[in-house]
Design goal:
Helix content: 40-55%
CATH topology of the largest domain: Aspartate Aminotransferase, domain 2
Number of helices: 14
Strand order of the largest sheet: 2-10-9-8-7-3-4
Distance between the termini: 54 Å
Structural class: alpha/beta
């Protein structure tokens, strides 16, 4: 029998999709499902963006285009991303890709050799861990500690994790799944460690503009960081373009050139007509962006109110992203569950509420005692949030 490559054993997945399969199977049996598991957005893409995409197709923009992206989009991205971060970028710093995910892989391909270490957040987006290990690196997790306002990076653990073999750190401010946002001091501490140890930084800024209060800041804008930081940008969250698969890396020129070459090797180019839709998203009317944020904020407020009324469940109100990461330790004890996976299955079968757990976002670290779940409210209407979380509360109270 033909043998497959050994590296496939190291390849993980985005585990939220496995939860989606279980939810779909439960729904197929005639049950009601309240989908809090997947961070998709059930708000339609703005009409002017759809029209721009259709117009580009009608105008014949359906063939190949430059590997790093069409010049018009790279220019628009350089201007927009730079202005919002107080930075200046050239279009040559921008490499357009099929969403944000490829930025992770191509960043690692550019800066990490097999055997080198990359420090990454855990809990965190599972593709970090998957791709570090798949590409032959050593994935070194750093943890978060709970605070009254959410979570903070364990900076002492980050410092202790850096070795002479460490080549990069992945930093996800406005974090998925825990919605953590760095203080200015925390951001500066991570930057200082990167400079002190001469590390590359991947700054995952997928949720930079998905926020309800406050103003976002980029680690790339701190002194000494622009030359060592790659920004991950995506159209998925801000413009509800998850299925359009459009994003980019904003990188120092030497990394941008490598990523452009990787684009040519991997997919030739990003879909031509989708890039014209991206230009319209950036330069066209911005009212739909604010309207979507208003809807998401209402959902956040309702979800937080109900979650914090459930016995044994509590969560800080996040200022950004569209996720809640409540502590369910006491609720699980109340219901007699010892594993959060069993708790999630029972919740689905007894209430129809479907959600991911802490286990879906990286391997549990030594010393972790609290139990958490992730609730995504981007793909569920406010009325269904009330109904579903109300049923979850009744089940836990019973």
């Amino acid at each position: 029998m033909q043998k497959l490559a050994n590296r496939l054993e190291r390849l993980g997945t985005e585990t939220a999709f496995s939860v989606a399969q279980a939810a779909a199977a439960w729904k197929a049996k005639g049950n009601r499902v309240y989908p809090f598991h997947l961070g998709d957005i059930n708000i339609p893409m703005a009409p002017h963006i759809v029209e721009a995409m259709n117009r580009a197709i009608a105008d014949g923009y359906t063939g190949y285009c430059p590997g790093p992206g069409i010049p018009q989009l790279r220019e628009a991205l350089a201007e927009d991303i730079g202005a919002r971060r107080g930075m200046e970028f050239s279009p040559d710093n921008v490499v357009v890709m099929t969403g944000g995910k490829p930025v992770i892989t191509k960043f690692l391909q550019a800066v990490m050799d097999p055997g080198q270490e990359v420090i990454y957040p855990n809990p965190g987006f599972p593709i970090y861990e998957s791709q570090i290990e798949y590409l032959g690196g050593t994935a070194v997790p750093y943890r978060y500690v709970p605070t009254e306002s959410g979570f903070a990076i364990d900076l002492d653990q980050v410092r202790a994790s850096i070795t002479p073999n460490t080549t990069a750190i992945i930093y996800n401010d406005l974090q998925n799944p825990i919605s953590a946002e760095s203080t200015a001091a925390e951001r500066e501490a991570i930057a200082q460690l990167a400079i002190e140890h001469d590390l590359w930084v991947l700054s995952d800024e997928a949720y930079f503009e998905t926020r309800y209060e406050g103003v976002s800041s980029s680690i790339a804008a701190l002194p000494g960081m622009a030359e060592r930081t790659v920004i991950l940008y995506t159209f998925s969250k801000k413009f509800a373009m998850t299925g359009s698969r459009l994003g980019c890396a904003v990188a120092p020129l030497e990394i941008a050139q490598i990523m452009s070459k990787l684009n040519t090797n991997d997919e030739s180019c990003t879909t031509h007509y989708v890039q014209w839709a991206g230009i319209e998203a950036l330069r066209g009317p911005q009212e739909p962006v604010q309207q979507m944020l208003d809807v998401l904020k209402e959902r956040r407020d309702v979800a937080c109110e109900i979650v914090n009324s459930i016995p044994g469940v509590h969560v800080a109100v996040p200022q950004s992203t569209f996720y809640l990461f409540p502590d369910v330790t006491e609720a699980m004890e109340r219901k007699g569950f010892t594993t959060v996976g069993e708790f999630a299955t029972a919740a689905l079968e007894n209430t129809g509420v479907s959600f991911c757990t802490r286990e879906h976002f990286g391997r549990r670290l030594p010393g972790e005692e609290r139990q958490y779940i992730r609730l995504a409210y981007s793909g569920i209407e406010t009325a269904d949030i009330r109904e579903g979380l109300g049923r979850l509360r009744e089940w836990i109270e019973a």
